[in-house]
Amino acid sequence: MIGAHGMKLAAQLFGTTLGRKYLMALSGAGLFGFTVVHMLGNLQLFLGPESLNRYAQFLQSNKELLWPARLGLLSMVAIHLWSAIKLTAENKAARPVQYIGDPNPVAATFASRTMLMSGLIVAAFAIYHILHFTVQVPEINFVSVDFKTFHVAEGAQKGFHDVYRMMVTGFQNPFVSGFYILAVGLLCLHLSHGLSALFQTLGLRNHAWWPLIQRFGIVASLLLFLGYITVPVAVLSGLVTATTGCDCCK
Amino acid sequence: MKLDAHIPSGPLTQKWDQHRFDMKLVNPANKRKFDVIVVGAGLAGASAAASLAELGYNVKCFCFQDSPRRAHSIAAQGGINAAKNYKNDGDSVHRLFYDTVKGGDFRAREANVHRLAQVSVSIIDQCVAQGVPFAREYGGLLDNRSFGGAQVSRTFYARGQTGQQLLLGAYQALSRQIGLGRVEMYPRTEMLELVVVDGHAKGIVVRDLINGVVTSHAADAVVLATGGYGNVFFLSTNAKGCNVTATYRAHKMGATFANPCYTQIHPTCIPVSGDHQSKLTLMSESLRNDGRVWVPKRKEDCGKTPASIPDSDRDYYLERKYPSFGNLAPRDIASRAAKEVCDEGRGVGPGSLGVYLDFADAIARLTEPVVRERYGNLFDMYERITGENAYQQPMRIYPAVHYTMGGLWVDYNLMSNLPGLFVLGEANFSDHGANRLGASALMQGLADGYFILPYTIGHYFASQKQTRITTDHPEFKKAQETVSARTRRLLAVKGKRTATSIHRELGKLMWEHCGMARSKESLTAALQKIPALREEFWSNVRVTGENGSLNQDLEYAGRVADFLEFGELLCLDALTREESCGGHFRVEHQEAGECKRDDAHFSHVAAWEYQGEGKSPTRHIEPLTFDEVHLATRSYK
Amino acid sequence: MNLTLKIWRQKDAKDIGGFETHEVREVNPDMSFLEMLDVVNEGLILRGIEPIAFDSDCREGICGACSLVINGTAHGGHKATTACQLHMRKFSDGETITVEPWRARAFPMVKDLVCDRSAFDRIIQAGGFVSVSTGGVPDANAIPVAKEDSDQAMDAAQCIGCGACVAACKNASAMLFVAAKVSHLALMPQGKVERERRALNMVAQMDTEGFGACSVTGSCEAVCPKEIRLDFIARLNREYGRALLHRGGG
């Protein structure tokens, strides 16, 4: 179907270390895009229940788009994870003996050395996060309610799933929020290296751009971190409540 | 024995062209029927191996390093000469030829040198096509500089790493042929015997340095490109591994060794810092373009800090003695001048063996950033080695053995007196006479490998009735047994001294008796002491380990053993050449401190023939005739 | 000064090997590290013990033979310095120094501190050259090269092939080495003709040899005695991507 040339190209992409790094960088870039959009969606919490629920309804009512998007995301995760695990296994095999001398790795940042760990923890969190808010398994939300029973009582979204209330209720458990903040922290640590590294891996930089790209990686990760944690922090601090939303933002 | 250089007839400028036409060719389809062994993978060896393989010959290439990319050509800093006249400053093939003959103090063959100057232009073309990143101007064309006493800018360079870049070019060409299966490469393999059958070189015996296995390799021709013998002085700017073993063992099989006394002492090296010293490091000669060389006028000032010595108490001796060339006087002259002031007790630094190379004026004139731009990497290197900052205080430099002009005798075709044995690069004696000019070593190595041997070896193949020899021949068995016996003997001594300590002693002896200044007295003394030291070696050396695995102690001891024999030949040559010329300075033959040649009696090449252990070698003569160049006293005043 | 050396000894490729401790007395601070080892070795020889095997040749930082991990860092961790150019004045009296060989699967052990780096040669043989034969080339000035390109090419071409980049990398990746050659040649017009083939073939050989992938930690750049920059790896990635775009899988 893809022909001899296609096979060769696939062999390069999947069969060489550089090809796998390309796949990892491209899927990483896609996932980064998702995290940005997701964060912007989350921040609508501060605009009040109506805005957020309108946005949720918009997403969920277009099943023709939602599922391809979900499948796309899933395949990006799969490629990212597969290439990560495969490369890590190869990398470990490439260096079977460690040095005993002063173990401080030269120049390498903490983030760069812990990419697989941070990535795996984030992946584990993502599974929980989907079960928590997307599948809405009541047993794991630790607030003893079933999110599926939340419906908007009035307005344009009347009768639809009340995502706003679900978020606020969901984050009221400090452990759930804590896990979320931890995971988002690790994600941003991951991105603080991954963002600049993806430019490196795709060859999209030179020495003049590099400091800028590195700074972009760090600043973007930091903004993402702040953007994500404002939601649980606002909920836990009582700034937003299940019914009113945030007064100052409305 | 009659040494016939086979110099083609006809006018000098047409000899090479005519010769190329006259030489017989090997049919392209027949080239694959010829096997060639190349020993050494530096500039000459790698370029030869690659070029021969490209032509279609079957090539085996051997080197003792773990990769052909590490040959010592890599350390050449300054540049490579070529008569391109890109600078429009009056350079020409004839001028490069003339400068080289004169620089060699009229002790080189005119025909060889002229050919070298001719092919120099092709070398640059070749290297550029390989992607060698030579320095360029903003217009995109190649940059040149003047170098080592030349009055035209004909030196092409790649920062201070020209040798490295040229070697990598040749290494890449060689690698391409290895990848194509045209060259079989044997790294970490040392040649220990040359095999001669019916007077023709027919193969070599090598030892695999990893497992000690000794094997034979037969071929239709053997090419030695194994570098110089500077390490006979123990301390030199050569790499630790550089040795005379391949050429010396070929010499013992009948190849004559020419002009071994022509050794070059480089004036700008970092002085010795103590007894632990394992080698000396060269600072590029280009430093003399802006640095001023001086010592204190009075002995008493030598211990003072240089800054505290006023200008009036300093002796800028090169500027004083050679006003027109000043600090850029040629290597041999600058080196001897340094020795002279140190002998007068005016040397500086540890052991009073050093002179200052001062950049204070250059920094004042050009500013520090400009000096840093030009020489930053050299200043950094100096600081790493000495711990001193040369922007703030003058460098200390002292001459050190750097290059050896002598080598196995070869004819115009680069073939030794043993048919089928070709010798290239520093390993032969051919082009530099008694002194080599800066930036000419790279030129010669590549000329030999890329543009001379590929033609002349074909002529040899086409003009001989080839007899196929295999490694089953008894000469191979004999040679293998010689190698194994030598190894057994080295391991069996089990004495009380290390090979290093004996080598160090030999080096000191050579440096003191046969270094920058030589006399009948010193050389006679050396000729008495060397056999005693050799005796000491064979009765008291300690070589540890076994033959069957990587044994660096054993490798090294074998090389020292050869130096101990070769050193004697070097001194003997120096003793019999009763004149001073270029790098060979006999104190008896001087005029106001300068070399005094004796053209009437010594305008010849001395080629030594080995006669067997304990016997004096025979000195053969190849007269040198000068038709184009007028013999003159070399003056740089 | 007096020092304690903790040094790796291994009889041959099959031996397990282990550390040996040597007390070294009266070390002259002006010695190079290798000269210090020479002195230790002379002492061993006089006691009839085999000296410590290590590679070295030019001892002026250009041949790339020396290959020691000193106190856990390739070449000892001083800026732009090979082990042969590292002087004892950089150490302090009484210090314990560990000395280990390069560790990488692609650099199999030979003996003591000597490993086999022929993998690098095979990578060059796979494509690290311009395919021109001797003779028949244009005049040197017929091919103008922008000074900036030529200078950058020289920055890359300075690589001495010592393998410190591999030794320092947690993945034993040879990317900096490969990148240096690919970049050098890709920056010169002479090398542009076969740039795609070169990138694909060298990467394939690098993988075959068993080197790991690049995680952009920057350790290689930090230990490189010729200060070859990480942006050359980006350039290699770019060249590789370019090859995929122009030539597909080759």
Walk me through this protein's architecture.
The complex is a heterotrimer of chains A (250), B (637) and C (250). With 250 residues, chain A is an all-alpha fold. Helix content of chain A is 69%, strand content 0%. Chain A contains nine helices and no strands. Chain B has three domains: 44-194 and 427-466, FAD/NAD(P)-binding domain, CATH 3.50.50.60; 267-400, Flavocytochrome C3, Chain A, domain 1; 474-623, Methane Monooxygenase Hydroxylase, Chain G, domain 1, CATH 1.20.58.100. Chain B is 38% helix and 16% strand. Chain B is built from 17 helices and 23 strands. The longest helix of chain B has 25 residues, at 552-576. Chain B starts with 11 loop residues before the first helix and ends in a 14-residue tail after the last strand. In chain C, helix 2 (118-125) packs antiparallel against helix 7 and helix 7 packs across helix 9 (231-247). Chain C has helices at residues 33-46, 118-125, 147-157, 164-168, 175-187, 189-192, 195-209, 219-223, 231-247; strands spanning 3-9, 18-24, 68-70, 73-74, 96-101, 109-111, 114-115. At the B-C interface, helix 3, helix 5, helix 6, helix 11 and helix 12 of B face helix 1, helix 2 and helix 3 of C.
- How many DSSP-defined strands of chain A? 0
Helix and strand string of chain A, N-terminal first?
HHHHHHHHH
Query: What structural class do the secondary elements of chain C suggest?
Result: alpha+beta
Give the chain pair forming the largest contact, with residue counts: B-C, 86 and 82 residues
Shape descriptor of chain A: globular
Strands ordered across the widest β-sheet of chain C? 2-1-5-3-4
Number of domains of chain A: 1
Instruction: Assign the CATH superfamily of the largest domain in chain C.
Output: Alpha-helical ferredoxin
> Mind telling me which CATH architecture of chain A this is?
Up-down Bundle
Strand tally of chain C: 7
- The helix-and-strand class of chain A reads mainly alpha
Order of helices and strands of chain C: EEHEEEEEHHHHHHHH
State the end-to-end distance of chain C: 58 Å
Estimate the helix proportion of chain A, in percent. 55-70%
